[in-house]
Predict the structure.
Amino acid sequence: MTVTTAVGSRILDFDEGFTEQFLREPARVRHSLLEHPLLTLDAIAELADTLPLKYVERHHAHLPKVMPGGAPEVGGRPSETVREIERNDCWMVLWYLEQAPEYAALLDQTLDQVKQYTARNGGMRRREAFLFISAPDAVTPIHFDPEHNFLLQIRGTKDMSVCQFPDAVSAQRELDRYYDGGHRNLEAMPSEETKFRLEPGDGVYVPTFAPHWVQNGGGVSISLSITFRTPASERAERVNALNAKLRKATRPPGADARADRFKELGYLGFVGWKHRLGRLRRTVARHRREGRVL
């Protein structure tokens, strides 16, 4: 059985069980954007030259699955990279398409169809869209992203492998490395993965920070990434970011005399507060035993 969204023009289709695992587990979806005029190579090439260059990312196509420090950038005019993608042995990302009003409208039209299912996590925030254009046989190394993501295949084929960390400790170790300033590319390949073969019209939902890597097929690939955050996912990002700042503050004694004094005063204040609170509790308990009213 298929449940079809019905807000405006239909874009996303998904199985009935999708809503139960949404925001937690990867899942296959379908979409109806194959003939959309904004997603042709010519339209994408035109868009590429209008975006600030810092929002255009390009790399060589044949990379290892594990590449912890990231890949070297490729230069040149962005529109030329798009138009020559079949022969230039590159893959590229156009970030933050919502800067262009027509792409922002497409982003909203798509996500409006699923925003009702984010209510349990506080709703939907920070809608963003990206385009991935890849040469034949390109590889995107294993990495994770902080957003909830719908990756929608427009042209060509690819295998999208979504992985799992072996346990919560391993997952938090990778998150700590990332928030301490590390690259979002992972340092090792997780052992378990679910492979999604994406043909044009297919898509996959990927939860926040789920590791994944991509093997492109034998032709040019165009994929549209539709992403968002929730209050719950933003809260997790902020907590991880604060924890990273606290870790940076834990320098050993003697490294900074002023910082050492500040930490000492904080410790003494905390210990003194705990001592006063304990004394108050003992006083209250004694008065209750003696039948006094405070």
Remarks:
- The CA atoms of residues 181 and 244 lie 9 Å apart.
- The helical segments are 18-21, 41-50, 78-83, 101-111, 168-179, 231-249, 257-289.
- Residues 255-294 form one domain.
- The first helix runs from residue 18 to 21.
